Amino acid sequence: MSAYNEHSRLLLAVDCIIFGFDGRSLKLLIIERGMLPEKGKWSLMGGFVQEHENPDDAASRILTYLTGLKDIYMEQFQVFGEPKRDPIARTVSIAYYALIDIGKYENQLSKDYKAEWVSLNRLPDLIFDHDTMVKAAKEHLRYKAALHPILFELLPERFTIPQIASLFEQVYNVELDRPNFMRKLRSTGLLLKQSDKDKDGSKRGAHYYVLNRDMYKEKVSSFLHFVTQL
Fold it and tell me: Is the pTM of this model over 0.85?
């Protein structure tokens, strides 16, 4: 260690921006901070990287503790390291975003952190630079969703066209021409229509679909063109 004595030490943390969709609204999972500084205020879920783990392992550990689940879609996207971002100690944070179908996992949340799903357009102020993290995560999500069908991670295995349209509108902050959107989406060949319908929204109902992942691999260029036209 003598070779490093002249260098100051810092803490390494991970913060998780956890997006969820309940079929109607795109939401963020936030917690009530239980420690100083900013105790009692709203925060992203995060923690420090332990000596025995790498950042990916730390983020997975934190997500599993909060949601009770493993193998959640998660991706590292940016490092936040402004010198005074944490008023207690010099802390660099590696940010990850995760995508969750709320309907599948809502009842498995840990009660230790008073976690709540909050609509993105109704978020309270978050501690430190967490608001900046959320903004950066959403921008990265938009970019990545134009290249890969990751938004389907937010949907149940069976979903309706209106649910997909609502999700796209909220992720890209646009108001879609719904009939035109439905026509374009069906033309990609990415969706497999099911025989039964969801009749909760109307008497006529909306057919369920599932994602054709094999077709997606064959029609990546079509999907890209479709997304850029939204």
Answer: yes
